[in-house]
Design brief:
Keywords: Signal. By secondary structure, the protein is mainly β. The protein has helices spanning 2-19, 184-189, 192-195, 251-254; strands spanning 21-25, 27-28, 34-40, 44-50, 57-59, 77-85, 88-96, 107-109, 118-122, 127-131, 141-144, 146-148, 151-161, 164-173, 180-181, 197-205, 211-224, 227-238, 247-250, 257-261, 267-272. A hairpin with a 2-residue loop joins strand 13 (151-161) and strand 14 (164-173).
Length: 284
């Protein structure tokens, strides 16, 4: 009887240990975007790009797969959708129509997948991990986060000239394939076009399809927590259309770490991933 009781307790401990976390596999494109395979409304199989700077979802005007079972109203909004990936299901997910997404994606899906939960973006194993209890944080360093309008913000120091550091806040932006993109205010205030070495100029399109010009430059030092990046490529806008109100910490920088976000969204924990020393992404 005692042997059976011990076996039952061991089985129960193992069962609850497995239930303490759930995983969602993903793949990373050559443009640093995270793609999740989903089934929407039990009918439409879609590859959705994970967008950490939004809550629900959207569909791209360039989507390749059928979306016959996502019904939009006159305002191009669709409510009460069911999203499934693996063994996990979310109800009442909202989708917006005709928003540009990353390469290889039919649309986007946001942090609704992890609402109220601690979660990890594990770039080493290409998976999200959702926790029901506090995870092991050994080897991670904490970063204070500000969660505002469904976006995460972190602060970092930027050495522009000499030893003078300028602190800036960055929105985590997994939809932007590049690394650091500065806001208009930061770029103009610190005269980045004059103080940094300019390496090129690119034309991009924003989520509304408007063409915008970015200048690429080299920043001497970028400091995040106790980690220092040297001679890091950065971008900022040029020309008349300057609509960048916040600075971005883009997908090329995000992939260099494994991230754990706590349930109350006040702290992120990071440690270097296998991509930490990878070559920097070049904008085409």
């Amino acid at each position: 009887m005692l042997k059976k009781t011990c076996l039952f307790l061991l089985f129960s401990a193992g069962f609850f240990g497995m239930k303490a976390q759930q995983t969602i596999p993903f793949r990373i494109t050559k443009h640093n975007n995270i793609i999740i395979k989903t089934l929407v409304n039990k009918k439409d199989s879609l590859d959705l790009m994970f967008q950490i700077a939004m809550k629900d979802g959207s569909l791209s005007p360039g989507r390749q797969r059928k979306t016959d079972h996502i019904i939009f109203n006159k305002e191009k909004v669709s409510d009460h959708n069911i999203v499934q990936t693996g063994n996990l299901t979310w109800e009442n997910v909202r989708f917006f129509d005709n928003e540009l997404s990353g390469h290889e994606a039919d649309g986007k899906i946001g942090t609704r997948l992890f609402e109220g939960k601690t979660f990890k973006i594990d770039y080493d194993n290409s998976q999200f991990v959702i926790y029901d209890k506090e995870p092991d944080l050994k080897g991670f360093q904490p970063l204070t986060t500000i969660f505002d309008h469904d976006a995460f913000y972190i602060s970092a120091d930027n050495t522009i000239d000499g030893n003078r550091r300028q602190k800036a806040y960055f929105a985590l932006q997994s939809g932007y394939s590049g690394g650091i993109l500065y806001s208009n205010d930061f770029a103009e205030k610190n005269e980045l076009d004059k103080k940094l070495k300019i390496t090129g100029e690119k034309m991009l399109k924003n989520s509304h399809g408007q063409s915008i010009i970015t200048q690429q430059a080299i920043l001497p030092f970028f400091t995040l927590g106790n980690i220092v990046f040297k001679d890091i490529p950065v971008g900022f806008f040029a020309g008349d259309l300057k609509t960048q109100n916040v600075s971005y910490f883009g997908a090329d920088m995000l992939r260099r770490f494994i991230w754990i976000f706590d349930a109350d969204r006040k702290t992120a924990y990071i440690k270097p991933s296998r991509y930490f020393s990878a070559p920097y992404y070049k904008l085409n």
